[in-house]
Amino acid sequence: MKTLIIETANAKILGELVTVSRLFGQAPDVVVLGSGELQGSYGKAYRLSDTLGANLGSSLSDLIKRERYELILLSTTAIGSGLAGPLAVSLGAPILSEVTAISPDLTIERSLYGSKAVARYKLESGPLVLTIKRKYFEAATLEGTTATEELPVGPQKITLLEEIEEERTGIPLEDAEVVVTGGRGIGSGDNFSILKEIAGMLNGAVGASRGAVDEGWMPPGAQIGQTGKIVAPTVYFAVGVSGASQHLAGISNAKCVIAINKDNEANIFKRARFGIVGDYKKAVPALINALKENA
Fold first, then answer.
1. pLDDT digit string (tens) for 24-47?
2. What's the predicted TM-score (pTM) here?
3. How many H helices and E strands in the chain?
4. What does the pLDDT average to over 109-117?
5. Which of 239, 258, 287, 288 has the smallest number of CB atoms closer than 10 Å to its CB?
6. Residue 19 belongs to a domain with what CATH number?
7. Number of domains in the chain
8. Is 241 annotated as a binding residue?
9. 193 & 137 share domain
10. Per-residue pLDDT at 115 exceeds 80
């Protein structure tokens, strides 16, 4: 199936899209958006210097029609999600968003209702636009780099006035192998210090549930869940987290969940491999001491 990937030069996101493209058999072509070296090998590689979806629709639509691509892959980033809908409309093509799995017979899956249900689809004919949910597909290793052919950008309907990058310190949540998340059960913003201490000892990152963010205890950029960041760490500590379905949707690919909560009926225990029913103010220091003793 002739496939086109549309994404920025972010190697991890590109790697996930390359993995998906390989399921459909043919080496993909790519349109890289913005600046940056394009890692990996592709059939054909194009570049659009703009990243604003409203300015790219006509250029991408013309390319897809001319080259007769059957499958268009984007990621569920702000850029990918913003491009996918208008692109599908201009192509008269169906769109499936937030794809989470593709089986060997090319049945496509996406989650519904906060991951409480799964819908399955079968592609009969292209073109089809898919947005791929982050962290659900292992990123392919991209070897080497590929030169790109510049494509003309369409009419400049929107001008970017300013872009403010999110300030980050430490390991990004999306890349951390260990994530320690606090929920409303933590009790206050100051109490996140103990979570930061154990996260630091484990070379991990600190996240927060939506409840903790709504309380102003942690910044919105730390929120994990359906409306926050999607993470897939090897170990996920959920401390004082109730386990709402929206939160679980953001950790569905976490390999080992360890829950600490005083409420033995908290929903998070249904997702956890290991659980501690008790006060985190006793449990977490005990874990910290154990780590120090074994350091």
1. 887 899 999 999 999 999 999 999
2. 0.76
3. 8, 14
4. 79
5. 288
6. 3.40.50.620
7. 2
8. yes
9. no
10. no
